[in-house]
Amino acid sequence: MKKILIVDDDTALRVALIRFLEKRGYAVQGAASGIEGLALFEQDLPDLVVSDVVMPEMDGLEFCRRLRSLRTGQLVPFIFLSRRSEVEDRVQGHSIGADDYLTKPFEPRELLAKIEGQLERSRRIHTEIVRLMQQSSQPSNETSSQTVNPLPLTPAEEKVFWEVIQGHTNKQIGDHLFVSPRTVQTHLSNILSKLQLENRSQLVRYAFERGYRLPSTEPVTHEENA
C-alpha cells in the first residue's frame, strides 16, 4: 500500500482528500503546516507528498526546500496545490524541486491522475536502477578476476545496503528484515555517512561502479502488499 502525505492548513480540504485517497487504496497522513509535515515525513517516509503553498509557520515552498535537502527527500515525488495560478508561481514551485503543480479549485480525479502518474514514474526509475544492477552482476572475463572490497558496514547495515540498491522502500526493507522503517532509515543514514554519499541514487551508483552484485537470485518486485 503506497503512502501519501497531505500537507494543507485547510482542515476541510485536507480531511476530504484523505478520505478520497483512502477509498482508492492509499495510506494517507495529514499535516496542517510545513513544520508538522516535515516531522511526519522524517518519522515515516511516504511514497509521495502533496502540499499547499500558503500555510502558517512554514509555507509549502520552504517545506519543499527543506524536504529536498534531506537525503531521504530528494527522490520522493512532490505535488503542489495552490490558489496561485500565475506562471511565475508555477515556475517557482518547479524550480525548488516540485514535480507537479495543481491550481485550486481542482477536480479530485485530476489530482489522483497526477499522483498515479508520479508514482508510476518513480516505479520506472527504480525498475531501471535494478535492471542496471542486475546487468552489472553478470560475470565476465574482465571482472571475474577483480576483487570487490568488503563494505565498511556492520552486518545490519550491510543487509540494508543490499535492499536499498535493489530499489526497495524503507517500508519494504523493514518488512523483509523485520525492523521498523525508522530503524531502516537510521541504518541508511549511517551507510551514507560511512561511504561519504548524499542520497540513495549515489549509493546505487556507488554499488554499480564498484561491482557489488545482488545477493538474491529471486525476482525483484516493487509492489507492496495492500
CATH superfamily of the largest domain: Response regulator
| Helical/strand content category | alpha/beta
Overall number of structural domains: 2
Outline, from the CA principal axes?
elongated
Instruction: Count up the helices.
Output: 10
Task: Describe the sheet with the most strands.
Answer: 5 strands, parallel
What is the average per-residue confidence, as pLDDT, rounded to a whole number? 82
- What is CATH's topology name of the largest domain? Rossmann fold
CA(first)-CA(last) distance? 5 Å
Order of helices and strands: EHEHEHEHEHHHHHH
Q: From the 3D coordinates, which CATH architecture of the largest domain would you assign?
A: 3-Layer(aba) Sandwich
Number of strands: 5
Strand order of the largest sheet: 2-1-3-4-5
How large, in whole angstroms, is the Cα Rg? Answer: 19 Å
Question: What is the class of the largest domain in the CATH system?
Answer: Alpha Beta
Unreliable runs: 140-146, 215-226
